[in-house]
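Hello support,

Our group uses your service weekly, and this is the first time we've seen a run hang past the timeout. The protein is Phosphoribosylformylglycinamidine synthase subunit PurQ. I'm not sure whether the cause is the sequence or the server load. Input pasted verbatim:
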Amino acid sequence: MNVGIVTFPGSNCDHDVYHVVKHACGAEAHYVWHKDRLPAGLDAVILPGGFSYGDYLRCGALARFSPVMEDVVAFARGGGPVLGICNGFQILCESGLLPGVLMRNASLKFICEDVRVAVTGHETPLTRGLVGKTLRMPVAHAEGNYFADPETLDRLEGEGLVAFKYAGGAPNGSSRDIAGVSGGPRRNVVGLMPHPERAAEAILGCDDGIALFRSLLG
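Update from on-call engineer: The timeout came from a worker crash unrelated to the input. Re-ran successfully.
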C-alpha cells in the first residue's frame, strides 16, 4: 500500500499518522504538501488533524481551496479511499465530499479526553470486520459538534453511512451522537473526529485505533 498524507499549514498530526502507517503498519507513506498535486500510484489518501490555516474563517474552510484538494476530490470520486481525521474530517465536509458540518462544541470548550466509539453502519475501507465493535480513542477538538439537517441525518442512518457513534453520548453535542460518517461512490470517503493514530500502540495506553489503519491498509 502506498499512502499520501496531505499536510496543510497548521497540520499537527501528520507525523503521528506517518508513524502509524509506515512504522506500525509497514505501508509506504509520503507527505504531500498542500500546494502540490497528488503523486501517481497512491492507494489511499489521509487528511490528518490539526488547525489548517489556523482555522481562520471556519475550520477547514480555507484548506478546501488548497491546490491539492482538486486531486483529492478527483481521487475520492474515482473510488479511492480517503480518510479525514478531526480537522481532516472538517475539510472533507467543507469540500463537499461528506455531508454536514462541524460546529463549535455545545459546551463552547475545547474537549480533550478518551471516548468510546461504536462502529456502525455498513462497512467502509476503514471499518472492515469492525462493525458492531466499540473502540476507545481520544478526541481533541473545539469544533467537533457534527450537524446536518434532519433529512440528511435520516438519509445517513437509513443508508448505513453513519460509520461511528459516541457510545454513551456525544461529549460535544453532535447530532444523534455521530462521531464519523462515510460517503463517496463506494463509501470510500470516511471522516471521524476521534484520533485513531493516538491510540494505535500499546505504549500509548490503548491500541484500538490500529484496527482502523489495518483495515484501510489491508
